[in-house]
Design a protein that fits this description.
Two copies of one chain form a homodimer. Chain A is α/β, with parallel strands linked by helices. Chain A has helices at 4-11, 15-30, 49-61, 64-67, 77-91, 105-117, 133-140, 159-165, 188-205, 243-246, 266-279, 287-295, 303-320, 342-351, 376-392, and strands at residues 36-37, 100-103, 123-127, 144-148, 170-175, 210-214, 237-242, 255-258, 323-324, 332-336, 354-355, 357-358, 367-371. The first copy, chain A, folds into two domains: 4-48 and 301-392, Alpha-Beta Complex (Aspartate Aminotransferase, domain 1); 49-295, Type I PLP-dependent aspartate aminotransferase-like (Major domain) (Aspartate Aminotransferase, domain 2), CATH 3.40.640.10. In chain A, the strands form three sheets. A seven-stranded mixed β-sheet of chain A has the order 2-8-7-6-5-3-4, with helices on both faces. In chain A, strands 9-10-13-12 form a four-stranded antiparallel β-sheet.
Chain lengths: 397, 397
């Protein structure tokens, strides 16, 4: 009796989330310390202490009716202004409060912008491997997600195929850098090239193509890698941001969209996003958290914690004979499955209480994703199990 | 370049919200004390002090990674169990944690359940006057909202017309009691009758029709009026609840759905709602607020505050010659416009700095809605302006 569309979804319910539930069950059965759950991007680093301090401060200092009340659908004006100023200071941009719309996490922001833009049948391009939810988000508005093949082995975007796939029905492109699941960060040159390709195709087809940059991992980079600000390379760029990872607040559902004034039909797009925020039932981003993040724009979660995990798991797996690229950002390691059918590998891993996600969930079979946003102890404790796995698959050198 | 659907929405953007923005502008121009903004259901009563205490308590006592982290899409298990127990205690029901799904306010809950249920072309019935957003929510999933005419002058539901309008494509019915915009509360007899009609029609058409009871105002009733629990009268009932009004937390976006095990295809509906919560981009209801409301289930906002406003504005407007029904619940007064074209009346009211919403926004032209969830001072200060209005329209007795 549920809708036909949902029947499919319920059947193929996200492998990641299903594994999260599975992980909880296994932890209850075998003890949390004996389960190595690398399945979900649920940060193990606590929010910076400034966040909890700011929560109590806001509660104490600001008027309760204001703090917990409705505001404009796009969010508190002073919060949006503070965010615009913050981005401008960091990246030399010139955004104003009207260019910022507060959203229920990055997922809420992506849904609002896709609802605003897509007519049924419009095409949205993205690059494999990609966060599997993009397919659902685009499908929510009857758009068609088209996927550019993965570019092995370094997972930089395949720009030749990308250019060929852009057609007259291409309405948007989603990029995600630093990338989930590969940890790859797009260089300035790559972003310049993407901008040039889009400009060229727009002119050919007399269309507007919006580049949606999904950036929940912007703050999580290692070895001093630069994450260029995408609006600088192409005027029809919309940025989706979230504080889920940068401030370790994934459950709080707080993020924003950047909607530059220089993009095509900017005024209509901004209005449509505000209406979409309302009618999709978000209404507004959670109010207390808006007030809190205003006080914490200069804070970030302890990236060195993830870096330590990254080095440990990468070095160990390489030593055991696994094939993977050193991630430059985010907190995922994308590992080549030692057998073509990566589901088989995940199954064997699970027998050793290691939970990892098959690459098929990211349109990249033959690989698996490991989320290393766990405790360092979990990383260390899991290593013997990984070593055994490597031995079983004949990887050990 | 925005989607065609959204073009219409942007043009006809919610009259209520537009007025909210207008109200802010007028307050800046004329001073907040000289503008009588009755346009939006934004509670002026602060959250009970227990809420802010609970926020600081949760921050202090619970693990930060847990409090701000992801959990199952349906919410923290202990929070859902506490809510189920609370409902059971109050209403003698037998819900378990699996029957509760935490949502981003009632609006998020309604969208999740409609996404779960509706195929394109499915019909959803509701009773005029109704909260205008229902049309958008149903439209989001290509459903068709069909509206039962208002039943003047007491605004109890027109059950004869309702029965006639149920057809083989009717998938759901939305009721809202205590009602926005009329303040009417459905009696036990009315709910029994609605249940009987739905049972009869389901049998005739061999369908399942879900009764969605949107209940953000459940706690806000006056003169000891009873609000019967709707699941008792019809097994295919789904309840949408929000803490926006009961705890004065509208900006926090926290509510829940009750999905009873005895409804048709309960297991599929529950799974589909969880998936819908995820793919619509809510992901989960805000985490800290989930933990907070668990501690505040026995609290409620000061209803006597609204009651005092209710009596004052009702008695005064009646005295000036306006025609309206004494609201039994919620915090709205639905007033008969002294001229057929109620937009004209709203315009004249605005000239006197009174902001009220035309009944057309609720599919009930000829009436206007006044939200009395403002300060008592605002009520009192506005009375001379109402009196002048009454005189201008020749109402004074």
């Amino acid at each position: 009796m549920i809708s036909e569309k949902m029947m499919g979804f319920v059947k193929n319910s996200s492998a990641i989330r299903a594994m999260f539930e599975e992980g909880k069950k296994m932890a209850a059965e075998f003890g949390a310390e004996n389960v190595y759950d690398f399945s979900l991007g649920n940060p193990n680093v606590p929010a910076p202490k400034e966040v909890n301090e700011a929560i109590c401060q806001v509660i104490e200092e600001e008027d309760s009716v204001f703090v917990h009340g409705y505001m404009s659908n796009s969010g508190y004006e002073d919060v949006r202004k503070a965010i615009a100023d913050h981005i401008n200071e960091l990246h030399g941009t010139e955004f104003k409060e009207e260019n910022i719309c507060m959203t229920v996490g990055a997922a809420g922001g992506l849904n609002s912008i896709l609802k605003a833009l897509l007519n049924p049948g419009d095409e949205v391009l993205t690059f494999a491997p990609y966060f599997g939810e993009y397919r659902s988000y685009v499908g929510n508005y009857d758009g068609i997600l088209k996927v550019v093949s993965p570019n092995l082995p370094d997972f930089q975007p395949n720009l030749k195929e990308f250019e060929e796939m852009i057609g007259p029905k291409t309405k948007a492109v989603i990029i995600n850098t630093p990338n989930n699941p590969t940890g790859v960060v797009y260089t300035k040159e790559t972003l310049e090239r993407i901008g040039q390709i889009l400009e060229k195709r727009q002119t050919e087809y007399h269309t507007s193509i919006y580049l949606i940059s999904d950036e929940p991992y912007r703050e999580l980079v290692y070895d001093g890698v630069e994450v260029p600000y995408v609006t600088k390379f192409y005027k029809n760029t919309i940025v989706g941001y979230s504080f889920s990872k940068s401030l370790s607040l994934p459950g709080e559902r707080i993020g924003y969209l950047v909607l530059p004034s220089e993009m095509d039909d900017a005024e209509d797009v901004i209005s449509a996003v505000n209406v979409a925020t309302r009618i999709l039932g978000y209404v507004n981003a959670p109010s207390l958290m808006q007030r809190v993040i205003k006080k914490c724009l200069d804070c970030k979660a302890d990236v060195s914690y993830y870096d330590r995990n990254r080095k440990k798991i990468y070095q160990s797996l390489k030593e055991y004979g696994f094939d993977c690229v050193l991630p430059e950002g985010a907190f995922y390691l994308f590992i080549k499955s030692p057998v073509a059918e990566e589901g088989e590998f995940c199954k064997k891993a699970k027998e050793k209480h290691i939970l990892i996600v098959p690459g098929s969930s990211f349109a990249c079979p033959g690989y698996v994703r490991l989320a290393y946003c766990v405790s360092y102890e979990t990383i260390c404790n899991s290593l013997p199990a990984f070593k055994e796995l490597a031995e079983e698959f004949g990887l050990c050198k």
